[in-house]
Amino acid sequence: MPRMDERDFNELVDKYSEQLYWHIRNLVGSHEDTDDIVQDTFIKAWKALPSFRGESSPSTWLWRIATNEALAFLRKQRVRAALRFESLDATAERVIDDDPWFNGDEAQRRLAKAIFRLPDKQRVVFCMRYFEEMSYEDISEVTGTSVGALKASFHFASEKIKDLVQLEQD
């Protein structure tokens, strides 16, 4: 694949901005944080453009950068929550409850809260598979995890979500 130039990169931004927004939003919850992470993703991609060799598709490359940026953000959030002696689950639930951009019904709110209680890697796999309907093979390319491990993670995540949503209903 020939090297990408600025025009090619701008086309990627136009083509994938909205999809990346929703990918990251499903992982971090907050509209404002998502906007920042999308911007950081494209900045990091732009800086790494000279080293992009085309070994994966440009979309896979962007998803990998976006996923890593979102996970780094979540790690920072976990540290901040710990410094405030607060659980990340409580912080995430507050983000969902206080988000003026959340326009779902109560069932969607319960689902979002359950997803935020998943371990980060399970959350990534669940969101990519459930919301983005990505194949396990594509998720494997993005995450560098085997298809078998991804299937197991998705299964465990689905079971946890069912249990958490049920608990919240009771």
Summary tags:
single chain; about 170 residues; mainly alpha; Rna Polymerase Sigma Factor, Chain: A; 8 helices
Question: Overview of this structure, please?
Answer:
The protein has 170 residues and is an all-alpha fold. Helices cover 77% and strands 0% of the residues. The relative contact order is 0.11.
In short:
With 170 residues, the protein is mainly α. The chain has 8 helices and no strands.
pLDDT < 50 runs, ≥5 residues: none
Please trace the helix and strand order, writing H or E for each element. Answer: HHHHHHHH
Helical fraction equals: over 70%
Q: Strand tally, please?
A: 0
What average pLDDT do the residues reach?
Answer: 86
CATH H level: which superfamily? RNA polymerase sigma factor, region 2, helix turn helix motif
Name the CATH architecture: Orthogonal Bundle
- Tally of discrete structural domains: 1
* Alpha-beta content class: mainly alpha
- Rg, Å, rounded: 17 Å
> Largest beta sheet, briefly?
none
